[in-house]
Design goal:
Length: 356
């Protein structure tokens, strides 16, 4: 038989870890996405709990309320079912404390003791249907006395649960006999992930309850390392920048609305102080070839002057040339095309940093 972990009051060290918080560099992560609480409401659960006048079922209700309050907020979805008879008290939903505690409050505290037999195997079989509909790892926390006096034995049903679904079955024992406890031990022994705890231990000591919640529902893992910083690589090349500067006819003045365009170039040259720039001015096809060469040169020089005055770029880093009406941006004689052809293009050469 595989190992069965018993959560008892002696797990004081575990409780101390819970109380003092996570170790440095660790984070709390959930073991299961979905948590199905299932409570045995058969007649045998009306046995008196440890002679204190409260039934096992009433004690299970108290313990379940404490358990959901002890769960950390890790984004679980939870559901609550009872069996004998099988009934959904809360379908699987994102866990909110107010909603799940209300569902626990709706759980009956008393049921008929006689004539209300214990179909533990059938209860697990019925629970397989809602489990089959949800993705992700699932924890089933079963509150039962381990009684079985009707229907299929629970062991083969539990084996099918483990075989067909990503599920861990944990058992809170209210066993009143050695035979009942043996059944519970066998259920918990079917999987290494299962945890068994005696209800009396969990009700008597908060540290034991916290340890059970931790062992079934969450764990500590190293905090993910921060992403590695990007690797910078310097490469020597030329960057072309098409400045959207539109000039009036026969004008080299940079209009105010285009100052932001020149600022892009100025900021680049400031960022890379070893770079140089060749500024090329253009015109439209209106006017003589010679006059357009002169006008385009003046436009390039206007950009150069702006960079020197507004961005403190050394004149030795800047070269201004004019190509006149050559290499038009648009081959057309429309007013719109000519406006686009009155422009400036810049070629910036230097060592640039690229992030890989």
């Amino acid at each position: 038989m595989r190992n069965i972990r018993f959560v008892t009051v002696v797990l004081l060290l575990t409780a101390m870890v819970w109380a003092t918080g996570a170790a440095a560099g660790e984070i709390m992560v959930r073991k299961a996405d979905n948590v199905f609480f299932c409570v045995d409401t058969s007649g045998s659960m009306m046995s008196e709990y440890h002679g204190d006048g409260m039934s096992d079922l009433a004690a299970a209700k108290v313990l379940l309320d404490r358990m959901v309050r002890a769960m950390p907020d890790l984004g679980y979805k939870s559901a609550l079912y009872r069996f004998a008879p099988f009934k959904e008290l809360r379908g699987l939903e994102p866990q909110e404390l107010g909603n799940i505690t209300q569902a626990v409050a709706d759980l009956p505290s008393t049921v008929p003791m006689f004539g209300n037999r214990t179909p533990l195997g059938q209860g697990l079989y019925d629970l397989a249907w809602p489990i089959a509909e949800v993705p992700g790892p699932t924890a089933v926390i079963l509150f039962t006395d381990g009684g079985q006096n009707e229907g299929e034995h629970p062991l083969p049903v539990a084996e099918q649960l483990f075989a067909n679904y990503d599920v861990c079955l944990h058992v809170v024992s209210f066993a009143n006999s050695e035979r009942e406890q043996t059944t519970i031990n066998e259920l918990a022994g079917l999987s290494d992930c299962s945890v068994m705890a005696r209800a009396s231990d969990l009700l008597a000591d908060q540290a034991a309850l916290d340890a059970f919640v931790r062992d079934t529902l969450w764990t500590m893992k190293p905090e993910p390392a921060p992403p590695a910083p990007p690797v910078s690589k310097r490469e020597f090349h030329t960057v072309r920048m098409d400045l959207y500067l539109e000039f009036d006819t026969n004008s080299a003045e940079i209009r105010q609305e285009f100052h932001d365009e020149v600022a892009k170039l100025g900021e680049l040259l400031q960022r890379y102080p070893e770079s140089t720039a060749m500024i090329v001015g253009y015109t439209d096809d209106v006017g003589s070839y010679t006059s357009n060469i002169r006008l385009s040169t003046r436009r390039a020089q206007a950009v150069k002057k702006h960079l020197m005055q507004q961005f403190n770029v050394a004149p030795g880093r800047l070269e201004a040339v004019g190509y006149g009406e050559n290499f038009p941006a648009q081959e057309s004689t429309t007013a719109e095309a000519r406006q686009r052809n009155r422009r400036v293009t810049v070629f910036v050469t230097g060592w640039f940093v690229e992030v890989k």
